Amino acid sequence: MAAAHQPLPTALDRIRVGSAPDSWGVWFPDDARQVPWRRFLDEVAEAGYAWIELGPYGYLPTDPARLTDETARRGLTVSAGTVFTALHRGPAVWDATWRHVAQVAELTRAMGARHLVVIPAFWRDDKTAELIESPELTSAQWRDLATGMERLAHQVRETYGLEIVVHPHADTHIDGEANVARFLDATDPDLVRLCLDTGHYAYCGGDSVKLIETYGDRIGYLHLKQVDPAILATVVEQGVPFGPAVQRGVMCEPPAGVPALEPVLTAAQGLGIDLFAIVEQDMYPCPPDQPFPIAQRTRRYLRGCGA
């Protein structure tokens, strides 16, 4: 009797897989504990990825001609830039926010990318993890956040031809299911879509497949990430801030964690649109030799999922 054949994974032909400096332990433009940018570019290409994000502005070269040369000769293409905003603080922060956004958007457009990933401000200090403002927004702050993000989306589109995708993130005001739903319901779907980060959403108690099924028309971009459920349970129980939680290994290599990525990718494929799915495994800080073999194994795993 012939041996039974395992079914081949469904081809995820609408999913464009890439990686990012974050998967190499890069959180800041310049930090002695981070992998140098040339090594990141060499290794991300060798690991089998064709798409990358810019990471924190200033980590990769900011001269478009130089960056184009560096990426092109490695067979890499930029999928998005990333900006940080604190729009819940109201109109007073607009000018400073736009200066930062314009700088990143200019480079993003010059590199041929179409997306700008927008991360809300942390309510903890990103280096010391100290509490710097309330984890809860007032009704007025929610209005400022929603209207500010719509204004940002409109101006980025009109000025640079880019689309923003807002990234729910641990230790920010747009984090788990309730706050993500509140944010989406308060913003114009023609202007504001999400970058669904599967790891951050799971970290905050959310179900990525449910979010895709409920708000499919608002999903514009993916970050692929998993959390270690045992470490997460301890982190939640002890109230550990996100930065120290990362140092404990709360974000882990797939397929060891949650959520399972195959159902997420299948649900995303079902949306019928082209989506970037950028691997991000938060590991700051990490030994310089740690990221590359993980990146290789993760790329093989995602190919096995059909991506």
From TrEMBL:
Family matches, as Pfam families: AP_endonuc_2
Cross-referenced InterPro entries: IolE/XylAMocC-like (IPR050312), Xyl_isomerase-like_sf (IPR036237), Xyl_isomerase-like_TIM-brl (IPR013022)
Chain ranges of the Xylose isomerase-like TIM barrel domain: 41-244
Name of the molecule in the record: TIM barrel protein
Positions in coiled-coil regions: none
